[in-house]
Protein 1
Amino acid sequence: MRSGRFRLCVCMGLAAMVAGASTAWGWPAASVAKALELPPPSARAQNAPATNPYHGPMYVRSEVMIPMRDGVKLHTVLLRPLGSEGSGPPLPFLMERTPYGVKGVSSTMLEMMKPELAGSGYVFVFQDIRGRYASGGQFVMNRPIMAHNTPRDVDETTDTNDTVNWLLRHVPNNNGRVGVMGISYPGFLAMMAGLDANPAVKAVSPQAPMTDVWMGDDFFHNGAFRESYGFDYVQEMEAQKTDGVVSSDEDQYRFFLEHVNFAGAAQAAGMSHLPTAEMFLAQPTYTPFWQAMAVQPHLLRPEVPTLEVGGYWDQEDMWGTQAEYAALRAHEAAGQPLHRVFLVLGPWNHGGWAFGPGDKLGGKFGTIQFAGQDTGAYYRAHFEAPFFEFYLKGRGGFDLQDTASFRTGENQWHRYAIWPPQAGYRSVRAYLEPENTLSFAAPKGAEDVEAAAYVADPAHPVPYRNRPIQSTYGQGSTWRTWLAEDQRFVSSRKDLANFETPVLRSDVTVTGDVVADLYAATTGTDADWIVKLIDVYPVNAAGVSSPEMGKASTAPGAKGGYELMVAEEILRGRYRHSFTHPEPVKPGQIVEYRWSLHGVDHTFLKGHRMMVEVQSSWFPLYDRNPQTYVENIMTAPASAYQAETVSVYGSAKYPSHLDLPVSDDSVLP
């Protein structure tokens, strides 16, 4: 029986226009109004960029069940400009395949969500993937690619191919070209269209794509399990054919703490039998099951022009965008491309580029404004629409050579020949030193100097966002914006360590991959390591707002205002050597832990400070590490959870630091 404290609210289709508009472009159906905090359609229309009014055609809607090679039929909605079926120039297809339901898509949706593309004229195709909503067959989460030896060997690449072939044969007055796009899970599906690609597929745009859900996307990061998200999302996707939001009146911090481990939480919710939950419980390591779901090993060459899109503050799929670009770009750089690969990165949370002006980031616990820059509108007008216009209609206007990135702090767009950029940047080390110091001078202390030490207690883990913590997509949830929350709500805790520069006397620009390199020890046999690179604003700085505005930081030695995370990531200690063969840590042994905090493009302005925060829990986004080595943390007994002392070292022999790619014109303190 499901715990009475949880409700699984099932959304049977998308009757409302707002739900249809949002879910069709990549978000869970039942979560739209509450979790995404979307304004009503009238308000969203009023907030649309004034420079981009819709003057395009009305679209005619039709539905069809398209047969696949194994006989399964997939529910598909077509929207094409009124009067284009029998006259006018042939039109290309622009398709999105989704697990989130397409019942609510309409002409009004296109006008509101994609005015640039709708105004130009396409035959838009929206499809429920296999096993979801009105489509037949069985749903499989991130269905792995198969060897296509028989008609029964189906995956998302074959379903895409079969759909495209049907469209070319049965939809009149088409020009034989197809583009595919999508955000999140539909971003994964867009990339599937670029593998073993149908010859008619001429352009794909995977946006925040689920790429490797164990290595760095939805369900695990470097071996640490994303507990609250996995708990909610799996129920939504696998408990029924339509979306069902997990909603609870209880603080999720308290709920997961009370149920000890994921096995206890799953049992309380009655979800232990769901396919992906079963794999969480049985195979928490990077086993062949999870490896088979990964996309990046299949990206052996860019088969079609590919526009990868992602946000620096994406709370769900930040990793996939840059991982796919890197995999494809490596082959292009080796001189073996068939087509170009492009990348756009911006100051967005998950899908934040898809609608609205994009002139700010954040929510009730902190907001950053971009000095009047409408980053979302700019992206859609200068990159997304011209990309498809060029490859599907042969029109000019797409002039991106490789990468475009919006640099925060400075709040300007930049273009690069490759990501991360090379010319004009140098690698420096920011060292973690005693007395809360972050220094760019190499340490000269004794061999075993501790930069900081604290007691990490699993009974009192560090929360990842302000409490109470709502269900991911539940009523009033701040899930979408937590990466932009003012970090002062945790910086004063005693179970973490802060390292800070003096006030910067000039701007320092960091562009590229940030890497954490810790030399650390624990009295336990396992540990989690979380490192955050934070921009500490002056008190009462312009362009930011927070409930803490006007207050100085209470972190040890800190005197600043708003604390904005710029880069952050976790590493589970047992995976320090191998993601497939975990091993315990020897108590008291100083061990090197090195991992990527991912790409950034940010200027720390004069008058700000740079801060690095190190902690050992991030709950309940990530499950608690017992800090006593057990084979399977998913089922760890309560007795395994022990408080341990962790030490971070900062000396000539053990120089804990961050590797930072800084611009040549940056003057370091």
Protein 2
Amino acid sequence: MISHYKKIASELSVAEKQVNATVDLLDEGATVPFISRYRKEATGALDEVAVAAIRDRIQQLRDLDKRKEAIIKSLTDMGKLTPELSKAIDEAETMTLLEDIYLPYRPKRKTRATAAREKGLQPLADILLEQGKLDVELEAGKYISEEKGVNNAEEALAGARDIIAETISESVEARDKIRKLFVDKGNFECKVIPGKEQEGIKYKDYFEWNEPVKSAPSHRILAMRRGEKEEILYLDLLPPEDEAINTLESLFVKGRNEAAAQVSLAVADGYKRLLKPSMETEVRLLTKKKADEEAIKVFAENARQLLLAAPLGQKRVMAIDPGFRTGCKLVCLDAQGQLLDNATIYPHTGAGGVTEAEKTVKHLCEKHNIEAIAIGNGTAGRETETFIRGLNISGTTIVMVNESGASIYSASEVAREEFPDKDVTVRGAVSIGRRLMDPLAELVKIDPKSIGVGQYQHDVDQIKLQTSLDDTVMSCVNAVGVELNTASKQILAYVSGLGPQLAQNIVEYRNQNGAFKRRFDLKKVARLGDKAFEQAAGFLRIRNAENPLDASAVHPESYALVEQMAKDMGCTVKDLMKDDQLRKRIPLQKYVTETVGLPTLHDIMAELAKPGLDPREQFEAFAFSEGINAISDLKVGMVLPGVVTNITNFGAFVDIGVHQDGLVHLSQITNRFIKDPNEVLKVSQKVKVTVTGVDADRKRISLSMKENEIREPGAKKEFVKNAPVAQKKQTDRHIPETDMAIKLAALKGKFK
């Protein structure tokens, strides 16, 4: 195990003792947020990213150890374990190399080589591999046997070549070299299946596509694989075949004689029949794994940004789920998000009269003292926004809210449990309103894959995706902190150390006994023991608690320390929290112990200054351009406000209020070269964009965030802020991901 610690420390450029301490804490059941926040002295102040990386890497290495044990046992049972083999297995650093070592011994179905061995042709294969001077025909004639089914010398040689071909294909060195050749010099070759051109028009850019494996970006790999899965595209992974065979001949062909000629034939057969298909499968899986990792990384980062979007806070909200024919579902929520009232209005069809809709909205706003109106951005969203703004209701903030996933929530068991007597449209409107008040608290109720901020999230490894998303949601929830007396069981489940069952128990205790008055009362909750309390308590807040520290991120284990500080300063804890000058006089070094160091003490001071501070940004109202409600309203050259809804490797999607997101390609985000849109943008960011292209038939909108010139065909030269400029290096050929990207935008909110 010590070697594992050294290996991880080297890979992550941290000290071995940091890895050791982190792994010990993880093995004891500590969570990533808890370790990074409350065990800085032990880990050397490693952040969540480093702690999670250590957790994942130690698991990989432990899985490798388990596989080594299984292989050793298998070889021992077969009587084939040698000291050399044992040493090679012990030194294998990757699962790929380990499986290559085991491959010749792995039990397998009957092959041409096993059939040849059963005919007694192994000695002939061994003689040929030595490639000494011999009469091949004469030597092969010694193995003719009617009884064994070898009728002539050529059949003997063919069987021997089958054995040699399999030996070559199972060679660790040969597999390593051919694998590298596939990765370094292989090409993805993509073609449309004849007759599928119209059905697969969204894959048009891949109908004749060739791209090096080494440089193919993850989104294009996933797009090609999806097209293959949908039986629209043929996808091959091909290395330079001559170089592959020459590489193998350099390893196995040792001379220029009859035996060497037989080995050369076996090399060609072994490559084409065995090694090439095996390596193609393996490298396809390898590139898929890397593409998955990249796509999951993109999705997790987008989800993080969306979850940490600025909350409106505790305001009385009217929320509207817009619609034309079926009307707009309207709900009123109190400052805690509880449903007060609901109605249906028909401002667009005349059913019930527009005047009636106006009266209803104004009446409910006055009745419930509404402070903000949230309008879903789906069908009829902009038209509803125009209607509401036209009412000129004073004292209200009007906000368009991304409603992706609201329908998922409305039909969920969670929504049915909370609103058993309301239909899905009312539940959906409630979700829209609560999403404005506190995006994090509401979005944790929805499967993150359904909130429209991913890239091929349904094509990637679902287990790894879920693990990443769970990590992301837990990180966000614990970074913000959770109000113990109002939190739903869904958000409580993501608090460090809890989980669904303890979250349910907390809610039941709260319902039976009333609000928690102290953090230590958590220990009265069924099945919530000392370990769970240790992990969770610091992330839970109790507003207006008896102990003011219960509203902060100061962990209960440090309460005595803070109380001692207050005593030494001749004041109360409340005084310390109110008086900056008092805190500055505290000699922190005096309170350093074996378990509490300056990192924790500085964290405590920061919390005393701003207890329970929400790390999210302040909410800012946003409005789209008036009169721009549909794609038909757009013209090239328009400069419009927008909101970033999704970030991919190749650009960002921006909602400009026309029910169809536009794409700002990577090359059009900024005047300087960037590799990753996240260098400049984040989900929910407000931006200004210039319309550079509109294809209404294909629902494609091209946008730019650059500041340069733009000219329509035949128009005079004019300068428009944020407009694009051609960059030959990045934009002189069509990027095939664009069609797929536009498709993603069209499907936004429908990933269910």
Protein 3
Amino acid sequence: MKNWRNNLLKMENLNYGVIGNCRSAALISEKGSIEWCCLPDFDSPSMFAKLLDRRKGGEFAIGTDEDYQISQKYLERTNILFTHFRKDYDAFDVIDFMPRYRVDEGTGYYHAPEIYRYIRFISGKPKVRFRYDPRLNYAIHPTKTTIYKGVAKSVTNGSDYESLYLYSDLKLEEVLNGDEIGIIKDYFFLISYNQKLIPIDLQRAYLEYQRTKVYWLNWVNRLKSFSSPYNDQIIRSALVLKLLTYQKTGAILAALTTSLPETIGSVRNWDYRFCWIRDASMIIQSFEMLGIYKSAQRFLNFIVDVIPEKDDKIQIMYGIRGEKKLRESFLDHLDGYFGSKPVRIGNAAYMQKQNDIYGILADVIWQSFRLFPSTLENSEELWTIIRKIVHHVRNNWKKPDRGIWELRTKPEHFVFSKLLCWTAVDRSVRIAEMLDKTTYIRDWSRLRDRIRKDMMKKGWNEDVQAFTQYYGASYPDAANLMMEHFGFIDASDEKYVSTVRKTKEALCHDDLMYRYINEDDFGKPETSFTICTFWMIDSLYKIGKKEEARQMFEKLLTYSNHLGLFSEGLSFANKRLLGNFPQGYSHLALIRTAILLCEECIEKRDEFKFIKP
């Protein structure tokens, strides 16, 4: 009896590829197993969740005997994933994708909640066993799979009914039984949330593959080109960011997963399948740098739709359809990623007060006025939002908040929050100048100056010789590196140069950055936060440490997974990817840094450089 491998091997890293179609997505292990997928949408209950419980979560695995060599790559310039299996002359590929392509004469998109697995025969007589084991609705109740004519239907009959359909030209009885199957030609699987109304065969599967391939190739071809040694990384990161967009509304997710911990075994586990105003806005800025203007405009429309009228509260985050209540609950029956409990759905941070969101939002609106011709109706709505933002800043900038890192301890006067309040008013002044609103310009300029004066007096610590985390603190915060980025201070200013140096001394370990090192509500942070490392690289470059910045960047690139993907953070000890995955924050920062470090891109980069006050 052969020793079959069914992909229950311990995964020591987030070595997953991601496929998606701007409605939902799936994570596929380096051995070809689907281990995370929520259908029909990103934030729906999971259909496969082995990622969060290796025994109960469910998967769609491909078992081969242990002599097979398995490798994985993306079809170049697409989000189509190839997993290659080879043993001597026996070889085949599994091609995974979620269909996405234009329909209706180019005005709409086909992006059904389904996954194609195209088995491409290459040579020899390869033999496999499949393990098709969906566990619907987060595996809360048992899932039963029954074979009908031409389809296997999986259902769960708990309090919330769910169903899933599997189509294939292989014998479904053999697939579900885990029988040994010889691969002698091409085959297909289709996993669909909806029952199909047309016959699905190999020819149809191949057509969907070709349509999806053409869509991604065309999309990448529209990106602005840069003469950069990091083009491959820029393109892959752009493709990741595109997968995080929700077609129906224009919202952008922070990440595709929930409850992947910041540290193995810790309780720092959050659901990131929502739209943070801060994260999404920074992603849009990266889109603008790459010429992806439609996604930028669609997100702006989403913001206009979700921002409440007049004096209502602006939230830090929303559901991908604009939902305002994102109640947090626990899935206690799941063991969590490598035993890291709790597994959470929803996110209580939506109730937090974070003053920095005003600056990010105002900055995006300013970019919109600068880059996009606006209709009168759109301009008036955006101008109303800007006046609302300044009103909020005027009433709140002196108050403490939870800060960019969403600390659940007592609020403080975080320097970064003050910076973004200043940014909100600064960008509002610039918009008022564009619209020739003289009264607003004078009033808002005075407010901007008051915030700046307050920050320079209370945010700067003379003993530390740096801007610190909050007023009166003695320790730094990596977020303050963004002061130059937002135009608050020049890179040549001695206080900024000193802040960069002192922050690096305190927070950098083995060329990776902590966010901060002081204790928070869960103790001292134990892992690196990837976007902070990119921020440090940018800052070093801007203060003249260009070669040090390049070396640090190229070292960081080696810590991505086997497909060039990053999660939220990294372990200092073994460089293991940690946190939710793939992380929009990390990939937007990669794009910005890669362009910054490319001397040949100076002209293109300057086109997007923030105007200094």
Protein 4
Amino acid sequence: MEQIPDPTTPEGFPTIVPAPDDGVPEGRGGSQTRPYDQTDAQPQDAENRGIVRAAAVLAVGNVASRVLGLAREMVKANLFGTTPLLAAFQAAAYVPTGLFDLIIGGMVNSSLVPVFSDYAERERRDELWRVLSMVLSLATLVLLAVVAIVELFAPQVAWLVGALNFTEPELSAVSISLIRMTTPAVLFLGIASILTGALYALKRFTIPAFIGAAFNGAIVVAALITREVTGLVWGLLLGSVLQVVLQLPALRDARLRPTLNFRHPALRRIIRLYIPILAGLVVNQIAIMLSYNLAIRTGDQSLNYMNYATTLYQFPLGLVVTALSIATLPTLSRQAADLSAFRATLSDGLRLVLALILPATAGLFALAPAIIGLLFQHGAFTAADTATTALVLRVYLAGMPFAAADQMLVFASYARKDTWRPALVGFISIVVYSAVALLLLRSLGLLSLMVADAVKHVVHTALMIVVVRRQIGGVSGGPVARSAAKSLLAALLTGLAAYGAAWAVGSVTAGTGTLAWLPAVLAGGAAGVLAYTAAVFALDIRETRALPRLLRR
């Protein structure tokens, strides 16, 4: 299945524009400017520094959000393990996050930031506030209507997400109640994302970069205080409200008022830009609902195993893809008309993403039980839960390299201003996913969803290669294939070294308790890093060797 996108961040990645001012006037603690020396180099250098600062802020915020997201899962594991009651919450919590992703989440980068940016200059700020007011007013009305519909038809919504498939009838009743409690969060999540889009357009990145961390932190604190599943609900609601409240100071100069004008060209452009993205999101949400339905049918605890494994699966994938999107997507957009340069940049990006994600996949596969044991096996999370979650994660990992490369291909298509064909490819891959999952469900149970997910990523990647080749006439497949072969060999050595070291240390330091896993994780991780470093030089994997220089640039 697809990981539920983090409701604290917009779908995809924010548009990076120069010189974030964060609303701080110059001369009062903001960035100080040097006198202009009548050369062309300094403005370009200032622009580059602004982009680097913005990228650094967003990267740090992304890491903070993911670390606290991991802490959130650790707290859930400690307090609730894999109990069916937690699965009931997982099904209920999907409703506001899924609705958010569908209605607002994918709109930020595809529509809001481009349109808001047209009015971001100081002389056009009054019009920006007018457009922002219209978007907020319309979104509030739509989201309030959605909340009312879900509250009224909560049992039917529970059926859609599979919450009526629990073997214990009381769990279905609990899910319906939790759906009604969590759904109002979609209103605040939606408003927060619209404010984020405005702040990105205004080059104010710092506060919106960290609202994801605040969201996850609120859930952690609420769960620890109440030590009940309802605490997760209150944390989710509090976190969604915090996203709005924390961003208001950065918009203190905004003049907002309720207003609607459906004929305004900005509103029409936002809707026009969002339609292709919406098509893909609808398909994605259908796939997630199908995954939830099928997972719950395989057991009341299955949704928990899938969620814990997906969290670890997404951690390296998200960090790698985020870094590469910041480094590569703006360049691809500028080179859209220069096919030769475009192909070269895309080829470099694909080689680098494979050089990074393949060893991460091998290391995570080798150390899966030890990592899960270290992070989750405490409190209510048992050794049996560790074994099952590790198995689920290992099957998931078969699709990770394809998912990473596929993301680069999708970015390339977006850089060419083609959003319809990736949406069509997404629809085809979801059909394949559904067919494989249903075909294997009886024989493999929960693991059929992980196998189907891997097949889906393979199909999606293959189709996107065809799409991109038709757009640009090729992807420099020879160099990519040779680099991928070297990276795969290095990854295999990494995995073997990590597994061997973890097994050797684990057999000597076998014990009980969370920290009993720590020596195996440290030894396996160190051995894997050393093995991969040696392989990089022995096989001359230039992409990884050039990474420090790329980061400095």
